[in-house]
């Protein structure tokens, strides 16, 4: 597959006077926008080849370029790009405003000008601003509009290009441009960037530019599908990278001087975008603001300001951030946990329905303890098979659910097997693993042991937190029975959890019988405590009524 480097070899000898501006030139200029030129003075227009020469002398070619610095040097060495003139640039980085903005203006000819907006660099302020477009107009968007309006001189036709966040800035600035400049605006090229959030921007403003706009995404596109502008035509481009790495514009394919197009996005990216769309729709603006601020505060609290710092710390950075997030405000944690829940259920959880279910469940506090007593009866009857049967039924239920979801998606896509292949593959893998577990009895025992052991330890940790909070809220002698019960449960759960994680299989029968005894005793004790509390409440009400009569 041919790439931008091949395009530079074919078209490099032609100026923009010889061959007019093309779609692939948009790719190249969007990549050139990532070059940091803050130290270059452009009191008079300066050819791009000279700009690169000056940078190499001063500080070298820097920017979010990855392994593609040679591509920049190659472009500068050609007639086509080396002779274009840099006439203006702006580079802003402000952590207090969470602003990262940069743009470059090139004159290709005496009549054609290109404004190229830079995408996100490696600063976390820039990444935070990417998230902020989901709930507010950002500082970068406002600056992009000001910058674009200042680029019109009444002489040049202006093309606007951008990649990633730069594509969003190109869209925002062009859509909000004063009507007096619209005739001079030639075309807008948006390369795998998010659209405008409907809750933040009036989408009707896109109507005046949609006839002179084009979106480009790679086969595996995630960023370009967020708040997707479906009214603007899209071209899907082949890439020589895999998965999320296809976002890098330098990996996009070229065929005969044009983008190497394919018919549809890859099934994996379609699957991810369905989940993200449902998750975003389920989170209101207030939650989005809290989530973004808290998550990026977690990065700052750990001294991380760039993505490079995160990469250098490796897995430890991920661990630190997860711990920080889980210690944040409960609403932020719930928002964070909605994403895996949405992926598992194929739909975002309905908060009103969840609240109603929780309320109904809390009204019947005796139900879980009755379930524990019934589970103890089953454990006494089939102690040797309870673990395997229980895990088998849970896994079977999950497979049936996933098959149902996949069939529903296939129906909605009119049985487009290619589009939904990711879900089909998941079902096939799950069925294969389930069949293997049924044949390999030890494997089922291992998974069951880990699941129960971890669940018990997590249960013990939760009870320890409840005990700590109870001690802080009450005097030492108050609610003593409840405190004793919690301590006993914590000790027993830790012992049971640790034992099942390491116990040999031949001890399973006695372990399950002992577990049944624990469930039975715990269930009965909790039911007695509920009855005792209910009796005390009833007695208090009865005494109050008698006092009122007197």
Total count of strands: 11
The biggest beta sheet is recorded as:
9 strands, mixed
Taking all residues together, what is the mean pLDDT?
Answer: 81
Q: From the 3D structure, determine the CATH topology of the largest domain.
A: Rossmann fold
CATH class label of the largest domain: Alpha Beta
Radius of gyration based on Cα positions: 31 Å
Are there runs of 5+ residues with pLDDT below 50, and where? none
Helix content: 55-70%
Count of separate DSSP helical elements: 20
Which outline best applies? elongated
Strand order of the largest sheet: 1-2-3-4-5-6-7-8-11
Span of the ends, CA to CA: 95 Å
* Total separate domains: 3
**CATH second-level architecture of the largest domain:** 3-Layer(aba) Sandwich
Task: Give the class from helix and strand content and strand pairing.
Answer: alpha/beta
User: What fraction of the residues are assigned to beta strands by DSSP?
Assistant: 5-15%
